[in-house]
Design goal:
By secondary structure, the chain is mainly alpha-helical. 87% of the residues lie in helices and 0% in strands.
Length: 60
């Protein structure tokens, strides 16, 4: 069984779609990493605030 050949135009469009997909994947990965950094910073600050609040209660 042979597979059908793509026309040069179809191949060009497929190549462009692949490059666009790769770019979107890279941007998505970057956004995900940034969101993780923001979440980590938020949770760290929240933890620090909870520790400080606990210390203030103990010192009152």
């Amino acid at each position: 069984m042979t597979s059908p050949s793509l026309t040069p135009e179809q191949e060009a469009k497929l190549t462009e779609a692949l490059e666009t997909t790769r770019l979107l994947e890279q941007q998505s990965r970057s956004m995900s990493e940034r969101a993780t950094e923001i979440a980590d910073k938020y949770y760290q600050r929240r933890h620090e605030a909870a520790v400080l609040a606990q210390q203030n209660l103990e010192n009152s």
